[in-house]
Structure formats: structure tokens, C-alpha cells
Amino acid sequence: MKREGTITRDEAKKCSEQYRSWLMEIMEEWGEHTIDPEHGGFDTDFGGNWKLRSHEKNIWAQARQTYMFAAVYQMADQNEKWLSTAKVGRDFLVKYAYAGNGRWNYRLSEDGKNVEEGPCSIFTDLFVLMALSQYAEASGAMGDLPLIEETFESIKQNIEDPDFRDLMPHVWREGICRHSPYMIAVNAVSVAGRALGRERVRPFLDQCIDKVLHFFGENESGFLLESLREDGRVWDTPEGRIVNPGHIFEGMAFCLDEFMKDGECGEDMDRALDIIRKTAEVSLDRERGGVLGEFDYKMPDGRSRDKIDWVNCEGLYALALAAVLGENDRDAANYRELHNFCERFFRPREGGDWYPLIDRSGNVIRDNKGGKHRAAFHVPRALLRLSLLFASCSRQAG
User: Fold this and answer.
1) What number is the average pLDDT over the span 313-327?
2) What integer pLDDT is reported at residue 264 of this predicted model?
């Protein structure tokens, strides 16, 4: 019997349907505007009302969106238009973006023929790994398997190398470890495992999960930090003291997804849930609602009070996981409060893609649809995962 306040079968069913509806609204919008009919690939730099601002081909955005269209086809709606749209992105990546040796260029000219910025970021490699792996699974076409294999091996080697310097937007510093590559690798390598075989990627996947949970999550600050010294001590600088709730929620959700996939309910799952709860306590705006942004843990009152779409949607999925897995009233209340805030302030009244940035009172600061890295990714990915989570919950809940 469910306790009062926790997620019921009827609530889970309603949530699953609602998130799927929101997801499809966003993907329909992006599907209508994003394909570059002249040069191939995706246009992703849109202002308000879908006004195209540039044809810049940032490979983070190209890869993220390729992944998302393929994922929607695979997991939500087997309409061929999603797969054909994903193929537009896949074709552009494979034809123009590969730099060789498992590395991928960061930015290309609009026609893809000129490299504006080369392989300067491990995150480009991670997002392309996700994109090609998800497209291969969705389409059943395995012609990209050699590229997927090369990219995976390159990522594994480079993340494990303390002297690897292509960490943009981070700056490599001797003796400093960064949380983001390991965190994003948990998700990207999990997706790649569906193409390469889970047993092949499992040792590296476990290594990344352990790093996220136990290296970055255990230090004298009491927070999971964006950066630490190689010995696990706090790097006591403004940059080294950053707590990023969006990345923490995102990373813990990636870990929990893996634990659920493997049917594991042990200490690591409890630890991930505890980190979510602690992060919620310091990042949820109890007065106005929503998730606040990053802060220096020594000066938490100095943070911006504006609210970012990707931080809040990653928080929404993490809190939903806590509500479902933790089965306590506080977790469920946190989830419901954030859901209501996002529906009221981030989602436009006419539906569609969320506002990227609002102020503490919910007023829209930016209404652009895309940007340098922003595309159909964080928000629709969270909505897809929320819909799938609650669909599963509705089949199991009492």
C-alpha cells in the first residue's frame, strides 16, 4: 500500500502521458524548423519565434539533436519522420565532422567543408558517440560501428589520461580532475553499450560511476564539486569550490538509470539518492520555486537567482527518480513542487519548447529556441525519460 503523498499508479499514468505530450510538442517544433535544406545537418541557432540567427554548425548541437531524434523514434513514437530527421544529422556528422583517430571537430562552416574549430573538446566526442550509437540502434544500420568503436576507445584512453588537455569549455590544469567528463561518459558509454555490447563497455562505465559517486561526491566540502585535486582534496579557489546542481542532478540520474537497468538496489543507489536529496536542500528555491544555479559553497548567498531550463529539467528527472525509488513523502513533495513550477513558468502557455532563462519571479529573460549548444536535447531528453519512468511506475505501483 502506498503511503499518502507518494506516487500512485493513477498519478504516474497521468504524468507519463503529460510528459509525452510535452515531448512531442517540442520535437514537432524542432522537426519543422531545424533541417538545413541547402547544406545538410541542422540549423540550431534560433531566436524567439524561431527566427534563424545563423547557420553555425556546432557539433555538440548537431550530435545532441541527432541523438534526440533517434531516441524519440526508438522509445516514444515509431514515426519514420523522426528517424529520417536523425539521419540528416548522422549523415552530416559522418561526412564532415570526423577528425580521425576517434576524435571529432568542434565547429564547422555552415556547409561542413571548413573546420572552424578542431577536436578541442572531449565532450564533442562523447556527444557524437551517443548520437551514432543511438542512431545505429534505432535504424538497425550498423555501418557506423567502426566509428563508434574508434570513438569509444579514444574517449576511454583520453578520460583516463591526466595529461589530456582537450576539455573545453574547461581549461586543463595540472593536478586537477574535472567531474563533467566522467558524468557525461556514464550516459554516453551506456548508450554506446547498446551498439558495442554492454560487457565491452561495462568496466569503463563502472569506473566512471565510481568516480562520480565516490571521488567527486566525497570531500571535505560536503558537496559533489565540479573539480577536485587529484588526491581528492578541495581545490580551494573560486573555480574549485563550484557546486553545480544541474550537473549533480544529471550525474546522479545517469547513475540511477544504470542501477535500475541492472536491478541493483544497494549502497550506491542509496548514495545517489542521498546526494540528490542534499543537493535539493541547497538548490531548491523554497520561497519562489524552481532550482537555483551553481554557487561557491563558501559563499552560497552570492549566487544568481535566475533559473535555467536545463538545470530545472535535469532536477525534475532526478527528483522524480527519488520520488519513485525513495517512496517517501518528502521526495514526492519536492518532485511535485518542481513539476508545478516548470509547468507554470518554463513551459510557454501555448506549449512547445521551454524558455531558456527566467528570473526568480518567473519572468522570461530569454526566449531564444536554440544557440551555441542549445538544441532539442536537455529538455526533451528529460521529458522522454520522465515519460518512460512514470509509464513503468504506473505498471508497478499499487
Assistant:
1) 95
2) 72
The burial of 336, by beta-carbon neighbours within 10 Å (0-12 exposed, 13-18 middle, 19 or more buried), is given as: middle
* HSE-up (13 A, CA, CB side) for residue 13: 8
- Cα 61–chain centre separation: 12
Sheet containing 107-108: which strands, arranged edge to edge? 57-58, 107-108, 115-117
Task: Look at the chain and count its residues.
Answer: 398
Q: What are φ and ψ of residue 365, in 5° steps?
A: -95, -45
pLDDT tens, 230-253? 999 999 999 999 999 999 999 999
Write out the H or E segment, with its range, that includes residue 139: helix 122-139
Tell me if 121 sits within 8 A of 99, measured CB to CB.
no
Cell of 153: 576507445
Which cell numbers hold the place of 379? Answer: 529538455
Q: Would you say 47 and 68 are in contact if contact means Cβ atoms under 8 Å apart? A: no
CA-wise closest residue to 88 among 40, 148, 141, 18: 40
Tell the CATH topology of 9-205+301-396.
Glycosyltransferase (1.50.10)
Domain edges within the chain: 9-205+301-396
Q: Write the pLDDT tens digit of every residue in 69-90.
A: 999 999 999 999 999 999 999 9
Mean pLDDT of the chain: 95
* pTM exceeds 0.90: yes
Grid cell 517517501 in the structure block, residue: 328
Distance in angstroms (rounded) separating the CA atoms of residues 33 and 46: 9
* 380 prior amide bond cis, ω within 30: no
Name the one residue in this structure whose C-alpha cell is 551517443: 130
Q: Percentage of residues in the chain with pLDDT exceeding 70?
A: 98
DSSP class of 304: -
CB 282 within 8 A of CB 300: yes
Amino acid at 311: V
Q: Please state the rounded mean pLDDT for residues 352-356.
A: 97
Q: Which of 334, 291, 294, 330 is nearest to 314 (CA)?
A: 291
CA–CA distance from 117 to each of 157, 324, 394 (Å)? 22, 43, 46
Give the number of other Cβ atoms within 10 Å of residue 159's Cβ.
23
Tell me what pLDDT residue 3 has.
54
Dihedral sign computed on CA atoms, order 145, 150, 153, 154: negative
